[in-house]
Design goal:
Number of strands: 2
Order of helices and strands: HHEHEH
Largest sheet: 2 strands, parallel
Strand content: 5-15%
Radius of gyration: 13 Å
Low-confidence stretches: none
Distance between the termini: 28 Å
Mean pLDDT: 80
Helix content: 25-40%
Strand order of the largest sheet: 1-2
Amino acid sequence: MLLYILRRQWQTLAPNLQKRTIAIPLETLKQTPIRIAVARSTEKVPSIKALLQIGVVNTLITDADTASQLLN
């Protein structure tokens, strides 16, 4: 499981929380060949879209409503 709390500009929020979280750096994650996210909810579409755009995720598992919103 990976946890990052980010602003829209992809600046990390909650640095104290991040110090207590086990996670690999985003740049290292981007070099991993298969990066899967599981997310559903039309409320999460902006976040999902952003993760896809910056290349953090290259495989998405979601529901039909969320996928439809992402494609629009």
